[in-house]
Amino acid sequence: MGKNCKLVLSILRICIVIKMFLSSSFCDVVSLFSDFAIEEVKGKKVTFIPTASIVEEYVGHVENDKRAFESLGIIVDVLELSTASNNVIKEKITTNDYIFVSGGNSFYLLQILKETGADQLIKEQVSNGKLYIGTSAGSVVMCPDIQYIEAMDDKSFAPKLTEYKAMGMIDQYPLVHYGCEPFTAVAEQVYQEYKDKLPLVLLTNHQVITVRGGELGVLTV
């Protein structure tokens, strides 16, 4: 490869902007999504990963989020990491327009992400500019380490996890569902325990952390 080609590749890498839309409840902040995406979202296809929810009793939020995407004209392509083949995982994560990771148990989600290698695939795609959308657990796993959320999520669902280092694509720690039932008490417990130890971002169900390049902001519906 010539010097000019290497220079072009280097410039392209510099120009790539990491984009993330991290919520507690995607269906409650969907009205903010199109403006954040800065493109026509109708007809786009999202890789919809519900994995975190399969160990939970309540999964209504998964259907609510599916309908939220569909209301924007976005095509939902479901990918259940725990049962999909490696080829299917790679194909859907790398070829679809967006990646969405739903809520549920953060520890179980992280375990499956690591077991399947989906964590590295997602990091590569997001680093190359693909828009990542997370809700609840799907937002939590983008922080450096998820141990802070153990009061909210039962880590016994992830017995194979030997440590809790997560995706590390943001430096902050989303404290999801803050001030919102049925998580009000436990979210406050996490806040009191870690407010002086970690850079927490308090996130109600009607707020979203937006990441564009190196800039992080919080929007409210």
From TrEMBL:
Residues 1-27 form the signal peptide. CDD domains: GAT1_Peptidase_E_like. PANTHER family: ALPHA-ASPARTYL DIPEPTIDASE, PROTEASE S51 ALPHA-ASPARTYL DIPEPTIDASE. InterPro entries: Class_I_gatase-like, Peptidase_S51. GO terms for molecular function: serine-type peptidase activity. This is Dipeptidase E. It comes from the Bacteria. The keyword Membrane does not apply. Belongs to the peptidase S51 family. It holds the Pfam family Peptidase_S51. Keywords: Hydrolase, Protease, Serine protease, Signal. GO terms for biological process: proteolysis.
